[in-house]
Amino acid sequence: MVIGKDTALRLLLVDDQVNEAEAIVSSLRNAGIAVRPTRAETLDALAAALQQAGAVDLVLAEYASHQLPFAEVAAVVAGSGRDVPLLAVLDGVNDDLLDAIQAAGAHGVALRGRPQQLLRAVRAAWQDLDARRSQRRLEAQLRESERRCDALIDSSRDPIAYIHEGMHIRANQAYLEMFGFAAFEDIEGMSLLDLVAPAHVAGFKQLLRQLSRGEPPPPRYELTARDAEGRDFPAVMEFTPAQYEGEPCLQVIFRRQAAEHDPELARQLEELRQRDPATGLYNRPAFIAALDAAVADAAAHGGQHALLLVEPDHMGTLLDVIGLDAADRLLAAVGARLQQAAPDAMVARFGERQLALLANGSDHAATSALAERVRQDFLGHVLEVGEHSLNVTVSLGGVQIGEKIASTSQVLARASQGVAAALAVGGNRIELFDPGAMDRAEQARIAAWVARIRQAIAEDGFEPEFQPIIALQGDGRELYELTLRLRGSDDAPVAPDEYLPIAEEHGLLGAIDRWAIARAVALIGQRLAGGRHTRLLLAVSQDSLQDPLLPGYVAERLAAAGVPGELLVLAIPESKLFTSLREGQEFIAGLGAHGVQVALDRFGAGLNSLQLLAHVAPGLVRLDPQLMADLARNPQSQQQVRSIAGAAAPQGMRVIADRVQDAASMTLLFSAGVDYVQGDFLAPRGPEMNYDFS
To answer: Which pLDDT does position 260 carry in this prediction?
Structure first.
């Protein structure tokens, strides 16, 4: 599991008071955490919940509970055998209390009266749990990978050994046969120097000292080796940094060479092995090996390196001009130009139409400058490809390799996305990903959104959208939900879920609510003037719920437009009302005095939603969309819908089912006594109120 905005926290609450537990759930949801809460009322229920695999991520237990003493709760959690963090919920803490809580086995404390501390404690415990789960998965994958690699090494025809501090710790059968050993026990712990002819011992000792200081090994090392019988033979060694059973070591491949071995010819053959025959550039395997080394350096030592993927723009058009047979010559010319623009970098052919460039020791500024230099160099240069002279531009996708993205697969994925994005918008541009710049970019993005929201409030920049809410029980009156879209920087409309969290963080929800109310009343007035009695439902925020002046503002807007209050419905989330019950009662009463109905939104998501109906009397309740997810196959959701409809009907409350997904759900909702339905299955949102309710 990777925690994301759509990942639900499976929370188990142990609290004597349902309303206190509900307040915690509401505060977590208000902070943007999707919560799936359950509440244990007995130790047996707690143990049963913990025994279900994957059912609980976190236990929040009231430290002062009388029904379930904290020490007994901690014992049940510890005895479950599950990796489930336990947080003690209390009103205040001192040193002695903290010692007692930790001694009982709790992972931390969550202070009920300090919502931000409680939120941080929950997030920290959840993230630590996610990290431990990820580590266990990775360790299992690593063990499996090591098992497979071990099998491959055993079956390899190449003589391979693993060397730690100059001693053999692993060798395959081909290695043993080359040196004349019957079993690994004959060579285990033996110094690698014992397999080197005396004439080369001094030079090989120097190499081992260099390797022990952390210097990179040479790609190949030629020497005279000596087998178990004392016979000398020419050999070449290849070194690769590795790990064996968690310890850093060197993987060594020994290859026997013929007596007439020509060192210069061997060097040339090795060079050819790393080159692409069509372009003369490094090939993909050689480049991947160098990239792996750069990524490993970033992870282990904090090094900074640059990867650029480069692709000629409009390749199809170019090939139409020069012919398909000249494609390799074109890439060779592009590669040669890259080598001139970046003489200290490694340039390789990475794909059929793509080149790659690796610059070691390059920080973000140097990487940006390098990418721009490459782009400009092609922009002002003419490539000679056979008989053709071409003005070729290139698109570049780059990644700043550092500790925050020290994974070869991530680096390549980001670079590939970048070059694809650059090509998609016409080419001759750079898309550079720098993980270190993400925080700065996010701050700039949020600041731009805040300015855009303020401008929309001041200049009527929101765009209303409407979705019909359709009666199941024969009521043919017009009822729409009004939502607001805002255009982003690319002028594309953005849904409320994208900008409302930013507006909430910067205290703009109240102003947006007032703008929306004024617009809704004006639209109703326009419909009335045309002979249409249309009701509009509009969701408002907790800021409006706690604003004592809002009912007066609504009354002023209604009077100014000559609109009766019963044509306006304001919806507030159940979770917000639960934590602001007194303000909610005053809100409903204040609006009711002007004929405006209030709807409880996302109803049924709480631990005991029906309890609210004993304290407030809304005109409508709108079911939580989670209840509609696969309703036809979920008996528990069906029962909950029937319970809510059954409790609402005697009090004169109408029930709305949101995000209805299929015809089978419609039948179930009708039989359960639900009054209204809405969702894209019935009619999607749109800029016009043109649904035929007849």
So the answer is: 47
